[in-house]
Design a protein that fits this description.
Number of helices: 2
Number of strands: 4
Number of domains: 1
Low-confidence stretches: none
CATH class: Alpha Beta
CATH topology: Alpha-Beta Plaits
Strand order of the largest sheet: 2-3-1-4
Radius of gyration: 11 Å
Order of helices and strands: EHEEHE
Structural class: alpha+beta
CATH architecture: 2-Layer Sandwich
Distance between the termini: 13 Å
Largest sheet: 4 strands, antiparallel
Shape: globular
Strand content: 25-35%
């Protein structure tokens, strides 16, 4: 299963910090940011993906995270 989300993460420092947090909470998932994309994509691979929980974690750090469909 793959989920792709639009975010407002801007720099490498923020993306690495957020990935560390997300990987601690969801170690079974493979995640990365594409900061070159205009939507600053967060790509999540795994099964199951608890997208609501991931969005909540992003919001706790003042980041927007919206699934793209």
């Amino acid at each position: 299963m793959v989920e792709v989300c639009k975010t407002n993460v801007r720099g490498r420092h923020d993306s690495m910090a957020m990935l560390n947090i997300l990987k601690q909470k969801f170690p079974e998932l493979i995640m990365n940011f594409d900061l070159e994309d205009c939507d600053r994509i967060l790509r999540i691979e795994g099964d199951p993906i608890f997208i609501t929980a991931i969005i909540s974690e992003m919001k706790l750090k003042d980041f927007i995270c919206e699934p793209l469909h």
